[in-house]
Design a protein that fits this description.
Shape: globular
Protein name: 3-deoxy-manno-octulosonate cytidylyltransferase
Structural class: alpha/beta
Organism: Rhizobium esperanzae
Number of domains: 2
Helix content: 25-40%
Order of helices and strands: EEHEHEEEHHEEHHEHEHHHH
Length: 289
């Protein structure tokens, strides 16, 4: 594991079960990297392209179930963010820590960062991560007055905001942060995906972060060029009005669709019991063999 520089100080909870760093210590630890790449568990991630375009001094930050984006152990500077819930870190209480940490190792692995973003979530002690170097990060205060009430921030959003607040010298790049549903990836309703996308794209246009996917080019910028006499707020309000009407119509169709497909979904749920082995299962069988 990469050691924390000797002049950095960590604050340890009573009993030595947790390893919290000061903001200064985090900044000193992470300032050595030219790029901080947050890799979402999304099919929108093109890891090969990222590796080919970025220098070897980039740090790749992965989240939780990394077997969704990795087929083999990762070689390069890396860090694993492990999200918590009420029972502790997901990968710990689900007994997945060993399976996930198989993808990392060596001197280039910075270790595990166990985070929590709400007061209901509990951190797991540092000795729960299969011997990996573990640090802890409490982001509840940072998000308390920012995130919409009744929703919980995604790990990627919370960590991206935290990295930006550290004001690191390296560039922060978000890879695969699409918030899109697909046949393969789930998008959970407990998060406010719309708020996060608006926030991150504003951050990107301000230059605080960069996002893969061309967010710098807004299709609505053409409207401002075509109607220079119309104030930007009027264009925005008109767009919101149209989108609101379309959303209402869409919701009506979704309600109807849910009713019509009730039987089909029941059949689908039955056959899901016989679905093929996951990428994780295939990797474990290969590694054990």
């Amino acid at each position: 594991m990469e050691a924390i520089p000797s002049d950095n100080k960590a604050t340890t909870a009573p009993g030595g079960g947790f390893n919290f760093l000061t903001p200064e210590a985090w900044k000193a630890l992470l300032s050595r990297y030219s790029h901080i790449v947050l890799v979402a568990n999304s099919e929108a991630v093109d890891l090969e392209r990222l590796r080919s375009e970025l220098p070897e001094t980039a740090l790749y930050v992965f989240f939780n179930k990394v077997y969704k984006v990795l087929d083999e152990p990762f070689v390069g500077h890396s860090m694993l963010v492990a999200r918590s819930d009420v029972m502790g870190a997901h990968i710990v209480h689900r007994r997945e820590a060993a399976d996930v940490l198989r993808f990392f190792g060596g001197d280039d692995f910075l270790g595990v960062v166990n985070i929590r973003v709400s007061v209901e979530e509990n951190l797991s002690e540092k000795n729960c991560f299969e011997g990996a170097d573990a640090r802890h990060l409490d982001l509840t205060q940072m998000l308390a007055d920012l995130y919409p009430i009744g929703k919980i921030a995604t790990s990627g959003f919370a960590v991206a905001l935290w990295f930006a607040d550290l004001q690191l010298p390296g560039k922060i790049l978000l890879a695969g942060f699409s918030a899109k549903r697909s046949e393969k990836w789930k998008v959970f309703d407990v998060h406010d995906w719309t708020f996060e996308q608006i926030f991150l794209r504003l951050f990107a246009r301000m230059g605080s972060i960069s996002m893969m996917g061309g967010v710098d080019a807004s299709p609505y910028s053409a409207l401002a060029k075509r109607f220079p006499e119309v104030p930007p707020i009027e264009i925005a309000m008109t767009a919101v009005e149209v989108l609101s009407e379309r959303l209402d119509n869409t919701n009506s169709q979704i309600d109807r669709l849910m009713s019509v497909t009730k039987f089909i979904r029941a059949v689908d749920n039955f056959f899901r019991r016989f679905k093929p082995k996951t990428r994780k299962q295939r990797f474990l069988e290969k590694s054990k063999g």
